[in-house]
Amino acid sequence: MSIRLGNSCINCENLVEGNVCKVHAVTVGNSYTCDSFEMKAALKDEQNCISCIRYETSDCANPQKAAPGMSCNHWAPQKASA
Fold it and tell me: Model pTM greater than 0.90?
């Protein structure tokens, strides 16, 4: 099974400390995945206004309601890589 670009290894339960894939025993980047990809079973609580690229900008869908800790359907990450 080859490693390829696609879903993120950062969300795979096979990623261990040091960005090492425990299935392939190689160092991988956050933008890689493979056929052995297994989604981590964890809640993501970092998706809120503070981590949204639109927070306090003219692109914010809910500028009157946006506040730390709040989330909405228009959330977008501040840091994204392809």
Answer: no
